[in-house]
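Q: How would the structure tokens look for this protein?
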Amino acid sequence: MILPIVAYGHPTLRMVAEDIDRDYPNLNELISDMWETMYAANGIGLAAPQVNKSIRLFVIDASVYVEEHPETKDFKKVFINAHIEEETGEEVAMSEGCLSLPGLSEDISRKPKLLIRYLDEHFAEHREVYDGFLARVIQHEYDHIEGVLYVDRISSFRRMLLKGKLRDISNGDIDVDYRMIFPNIRRKVR
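A: Here is the predicted structure in token form.
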């Protein structure tokens, strides 16, 4: 089932998400719905807070970038209870966008390497190192479970310049081709 994605300004996007256990209600169904939602919106990642669930869960399928980033070949993963243990290297800026902030993209500086601990969909534990583009995608989704949005990582001056566009997103005054929940109105848009 395709779930509505919450837009910028929704309070769930600002919460630090909670760890879950394997008994979380309908977890497999939620993961399946998140994949379907992400693909329907043409995303490469989706975090549970973006579908109004404040839990430490995100999914990533970065394989569409295989020509530009060969390391993304067959990279399709579920991250549960993820915790980044270390980020290293000199920060690199790259353009990022977000399904909760449609129509926007900004250059965001991030460290190029990370060490992350997480559980997969079978609750098997992993501790892995990622670098480059995959590290960036993971950091972006990880930020969501920490209550952080990529626009929090831009300068206050740049954020001020985007104030009107951010307000438009919160108010639903945008064209988007996937279902969303806007915090300042009580309707869903397709």
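The beta strands are 5-6, 45-47, 57-61, 76-88, 92-97, 105-110, 113-119, 125-131, 180-181, 188-189.

The first strand starts at residue 5 and ends at 6.

Upvote if useful.
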